[in-house]
Amino acid sequence: MTPAELTDALRRVLADLGGGAAQRRVDPRWRRPRAEVGGDWSTGVALELAREAGRPAPVLAGEFARALTALEGVADARVTGPGFLTVTLATPHGVVEQIVADGPRWLHTAACAGRRIRVEGGAPLVADVREFRAAVLAESLHRLLAAAGATVTRDEAGANGPDLRLVTDRVDGSTLEGDAVASPRRPAPIEVPVAEVRVGPVRFIRESTNPPATGGSPASAGIGTPVRGVDAAGAPGEDGSAALAEAAMLVGADALRVGLLRVPAREGATVPLVGWSGRTEANPAFRLVHAHACAVREARVARETALRPAGPTLPHPGGPVEFGTGVEERPGRDVAPGRVEKRVGSCGAAASDADRDGPLLALLIDAPRVAGQAALMLAPELLLRHLDAVATEFAAVHPMSPGRRGTDARARLAEATAVVLRAGLDLLDVEVPTPL
User: Fold this and answer.
1) Which of 93, 149, 289, 414 is positioned for an S-S bond with 299, CB 3.0–4.6 A?
2) Is residue 368 within 8 Å of residue 109, measured between CB atoms?
3) Contact 4, 39 (CB under 8 A)
């Protein structure tokens, strides 16, 4: 259940109420409620519409609450304060189970269902950097469109130069019909181009403290100096294929793919060879693949720990004494009566499981929509940025709190994270090693 779906429900309630408020398009601002209030989302839309609806704000908010409580995915909706509507969403454990069960098909949608699309250009045999970028883009678009329900074919030699062209079937010059069949009442579909994708230039940059040397090799290039074979504007020179081969050897083909897909196709892309050559967070492909490996390991460790018999937790001499999950009191430190010292975990503050996992769960649930949008907009960078956000959010909750070690919920969340990362990277044609 998203804020957009909650808004749609509120609009239906207003339409049933009638009056002046029913004629107004509602665009409520959903906010995270204060901790003492609780809940997941809160809005003051009832305060704004009370006069037009002819009802006091608390009464109108109560009608909204009753309507939202009946929705699947809403655990509770109530009136707080002078007329705020506060919603608590149902715990989406069922969605996590579904992600794990669906596997790679979790990112498959019907965004382009019924369309037949031919991707022209992007031949795998390339002579320079732009042609390599076009090939990377063409393969990712092929996979994204197919996952969105389209029937996709490739014509690697169909476009001129390194740019791409997408052609689909259009009937009567107006409606896309992927499965149209010629008949007296339905003319044969006519192939028309629906998109021309221009591929921007690429620059390979060495980050080095060495001063530039006249007539030197790429190893002697200085800070911000393009590698030979690609000039300052990004156009391939005589050694374009040699520069491409050298870059692939230094940073790896997958890092090169991810780095090029991070930038919209029409824009120029810069590849920092030194920064992307190591197994560090600076390497865009390693960051995602490493997050996937951590998620797989997290799931395995959680399951193995769950099989072990539980034993008493003994405090370390001079260390913190645990009085419950997420709460501790340190010996030798005065604590006021009735107060406890909250453990600061990996997220930077004490938080419940729902608060800690909420952002990650939201990203996992939203991944199919983003994949479909990336296909519709011919923009693989949208999915790549989403996967990067998943990796960042998983790192914020990994390792998870000690009180959850060995829980099935922890294992399932890690498995779902691994599924989304692996499926997304596969759509972008990035190889994900299978952890041992």
Assistant:
1) 414
2) yes
3) no
Tokens at 419, concatenated: 């599924």
Beta-strand (E) ranges in 276-432?
321-324, 327-329, 341-342
**Count of other CB atoms within 10 angstroms of residue 238:** 9
Rounded Cα distance, 69 and 88, in Å: 9
Distance CA 137, CA 207 (A): 26
Lowest mean pLDDT among 40-44, 91-95, 298-302: 91-95
Two tokens, residue 130: 């732009």
Q: Report the 10 Å Cβ neighbour count for 29.
A: 11
Residues contacting residue 43 through CB under 8 Å, at least 6 positions apart:
28, 29, 30, 31, 84, 85
- What domains sit in the chain, N to C, each tagged with a CATH number? 3-89 (3.30.1360.70), 115-197 (no CATH), 202-272 (no CATH)
Work out the pLDDT band at 345, boundaries 50, 70, 90: very low
- The angle, 0 to 180 degrees and rounded to 10, between the axes of the packed helices 380-396 and 408-427 is 160
Report CA 425 to chain centroid distance, whole Å. 11
Q: What is the mean pLDDT of residues 209-213?
A: 40
Q: Write the DSSP string, 117-141.
A: EEEE---SS-SSHHHHHHHHHHHHH
Residue 226 · residue 203 · CB < 8 Å: yes
CA 142 to chain CA centroid, nearest Å: 19
Contact partners, residue 61, CB within 8 Å, separation at least 6: 46, 79, 83, 84, 85
3-class secondary-structure state, position 404: helix
Neighbouring C-beta atoms of residue 280, cutoff 10 Å: 11
Report how far residue 225's alpha carbon sits from residue 204's, in angstroms, rounded to the nearest whole number.
Answer: 8
Non-local CB neighbours of 312 within 8 Å, separated by 6+ positions: none
Average pLDDT over residues 65-73: 86
Neighbours of 31 (CB within 10 A): 13
Q: Over the Cα atoms of the chain, what is R_g?
A: 27
Least confident of 72-86, 278-292, 402-416: 402-416
Whats the size of the chain, residue-wise? 436
Report how far residue 370's alpha carbon sits from residue 386's, in angstroms, rounded to the nearest whole number: 7
Which DSSP letter does residue 33 get? P
DSSP 273: T
